[in-house]
Amino acid sequence: MEFQLIDRIRERTAQGREDVRLGIGDDAALVAPPPGQEIAIAIDTLVEGVHFPQGTAPADIGWKSLAVNLSDLAAMGASPAWALLALTLPTQAAAQTRDFIDGFADGFAALAQPHRLALIGGDTTRGALSISVAVHGFVPPGKALTRAGARAGDVVLVTGTLGDAAAGLQLLQQGARIDEGDGRAAYLIERLNRPTPRLAAGLALRERASACIDISDGLLADLGHICAASGLGAEIDAALLPRSSMLLGAFDDVAARDFALSGGDDYELCFTVPPARVAEVQTDLARMGCGATRIGRMLESDGVRVRDVHGQWLEVARRGWDHFAA
Amino acid sequence: MEFQLIDRIRERTAQGREDVRLGIGDDAALVAPPPGQEIAIAIDTLVEGVHFPQGTAPADIGWKSLAVNLSDLAAMGASPAWALLALTLPTQAAAQTRDFIDGFADGFAALAQPHRLALIGGDTTRGALSISVAVHGFVPPGKALTRAGARAGDVVLVTGTLGDAAAGLQLLQQGARIDEGDGRAAYLIERLNRPTPRLAAGLALRERASACIDISDGLLADLGHICAASGLGAEIDAALLPRSSMLLGAFDDVAARDFALSGGDDYELCFTVPPARVAEVQTDLARMGCGATRIGRMLESDGVRVRDVHGQWLEVARRGWDHFAA
């Protein structure tokens, strides 16, 4: 039974990777890593009602469960190769399980295929809906991006726009439907449900960014991790935060700012670059269709502080998501 | 918060592996695989009430969540190296969470340390208690044991004794306490809660066994996987099934036989060996303190059939655990 379910997903994911010697169906998979590369490995779990709202479409859950993991590889500057999937599903009618699996597999595969990611192992169990995915990617020795390399004076940048996913979640919680109105809700909810891991940007940042992290828990929390790992502080200019026109059309300026500062689930990259290289990095990322906006700089201090549009220091109460907080 | 919990476990697991370039604490771990080795990778999830009874001690849960995964590496003939842990815990008082984590970490580490297994990544989330562990081990190219290589005429063997874990589960469900009586219950429950992955045996079987699997779902189900993957059938002699004196002391012969045939969770190895090499394999495994008993042979047919002590074919209704069955 286990393999029948996992097989429905495997059938939809890219095959033919030469480095996969034995895929799904035995006690373990066998892979032959490329000589001279390091392997970046990450695992993340999504739980219904914690990491995605109840009622989220199976295809969106499949996409997101892979996306949040690929985002970790992006933040390391690694290129994806293999994934494992542990899927826990509630007891329900067989037809419902099959429908869920087929939708989940479609969403997972839609993201896996363009990256030639192979699903090499899986486990299915009964219980409350949750999904753990482990991913593996390659990076040349010593070239991985980490949180620890920022220097005082480095410029802080982020890819894309911030706050959309948290705004989408709020709209969903207020009962918005994606087929409503002017397309803003649809856009923001899509940003929540189908985040784009910034893999190409991560590769382009190797040997250029001094530190990098993906924004899963909110900008302040995640930039705080760079600060802690690098032994520095940072200041951010709220006026510089990149925000989508959809976000600014759907919420007032203060709400949009707070989503951008503290909202989780954007899966953009936050990274630091020496001042002399900022223009080059922005040009290169723009060429791949991924904006990179400077929002602040690293300081010889600790913690993250935020200047508002009037030049005053902001008090920011909510510093990010902590899924493990009671 | 996440890393504080995972750190309590990491502190207790083996450090100082030179192939771990970056451990827990960044977006991903970085490892440098040994040149010229394949990597065996497996993932398994344990859910409370499905894979272990409610009330199981946290240390036993920690041990077992790693053991079931190391058992997959054993079945491939791989030597363990790295693990990832995704831990989902219910919302509860902070002190309770800390106690659970400390116990879990002690059990996990007690099994990880002798194998020099490094915990390199983790994720903690809130939800119904469940644990996913992914493990990585090394095996020389082309030398891994699989389910697919058995030939007609090969002898079927198993390590250790069968049925103890299922008997332990039944005793627990009947309200047995481990401090009761003559030690039989304690032994059988320990076999359920603290299975020993047969890693050394798996290594010794490389280049000798033609096929191998670990017994997690019950002998009949798991030998059935070898049959399916090898395109063969098998016959088993019930009189030859290795059963512990504890099992035979606590249950009658028929119950003990059924536990040995269909009980899950033993995590012994079931493997096939050409007749000419059986004695050599048995001698080598005995030298490492691991009995290996011949129980049957592979046939040009399909499915697994069982002969009882009178030479009659047994009807066996329950062919193993299927955790995913509704």
UniProtKB/TrEMBL annotation, chains A, B:
Mg(2+) 1 binds at residues 44, 123. Residues 25-139 form the PurM-like N-terminal domain. Residues 151-307 form the PurM-like C-terminal domain. GO terms for molecular function: thiamine-phosphate kinase activity. Substrate binds at residues 51, 265, 321. NCBIfam families: thiL. This is Thiamine-monophosphate kinase. It comes from Dyella halodurans. The gene is thiL.
